[in-house]
Amino acid sequence: MTDIRVEVARYRPGQDEEPVFQGYDVPLVADWAVLDGLNYIKDQLDGSLSYRWSCRMGVCGSCGMTVNGEPRLTCGTFLTEFGGGPIRIEPLKGFPVIRDLVVDIDGFLAKLSSVRPWLVREGEELPLSAEYAQTPEQLEAYKQYSMCINCLLCYSACPVYVLDPDFLGPAAIALAQRYNLDSRDMGDRFDVLNQEDAVWGCTFVGECTRVCPKHVDPAEAIQRYKVTAALRSVLPWSRR
Ligand code: SF4
Ligand code: FES
């Protein structure tokens, strides 16, 4: 069977001063994803390689890496996409590296919780047995944003975030809009979103939307909230 050369960025704290590339030959199996290639390396060639994955089906969002310069889900990217290779695998750009291909996502998690990504209710609560019924149109208003799997490819592709790690960023803003546009939500996320490091930091490059594997459109979410925020300065009671 033909092999394909896979070059993997290694960074081992206490051992490497900076990341170095290590090459491995991996069988070019037609239905192997890049993640299968990494699992082959880990199982057969080098058990010290570190990376994250879980579901293997584009659902958990944990296997995002930089593959030949592009942020990709490695479980949804096939070895055969790269001809005869080589394939170069690096951690997601813009995040501190903990080890090899594992990045530190604590900063993102703090941003995510700052937008309160849940249904905020104020005042009277319906009993747990009650339904919060919605029409198909009300569901459609936010549905695409609910597809986000927190894979962080959009952050890695965003030139604003890579230059300014304090930028709230595409997924956190898209998820804020997922709740802002939900007819059941009563939360107000204006103070978090209406900031230079939030929606006003976006220069509308649109790379976030291009790389999203779940067809979320964070760029649209951000531009839409700019309109909401601008309207609020003239109509302070308008919240959505
Ligand atoms: S918006 Fe898309 S690219 Fe960004 S974290 Fe969510 S699923 Fe991933
Ligand atoms: S392993 Fe879960 S999205 Fe790739």
Automatic annotation (TrEMBL):
Keywords assigned: 2Fe-2S, 3Fe-4S, 4Fe-4S, Iron, Iron-sulfur, Metal-binding, Oxidoreductase, Tricarboxylic acid cycle
UniProt catalytic activity: a menaquinone + succinate = a menaquinol + fumarate
Keyword 4Fe-4S set for record: yes
EC number: 1.3.5.1
EC class: oxidoreductase
Associated pathway: Carbohydrate metabolism; tricarboxylic acid cycle
Sequence ranges assigned to domain 4Fe-4S ferredoxin-type in this UniProt record: 139-168
Free-text remark on how the cofactor is bound: Binds 1 [2Fe-2S] cluster. Binds 1 [3Fe-4S] cluster.
Cofactor(s) in the UniProt record: [2Fe-2S] cluster; [3Fe-4S] cluster; [4Fe-4S] cluster
Pfam families from the UniProt entry: Fer2_3, Fer4_8
Domain spans labelled 2Fe-2S ferredoxin-type: 2-95
MF GO annotations: oxidoreductase activity
Bilayer-crossing regions: none
Cytoplasm recorded as keyword: no
Similarity comment: Belongs to the succinate dehydrogenase/fumarate reductase iron-sulfur protein family.
Name assigned to this protein: Fumarate reductase iron-sulfur subunit
Taxonomic source organism: Nonomuraea angiospora
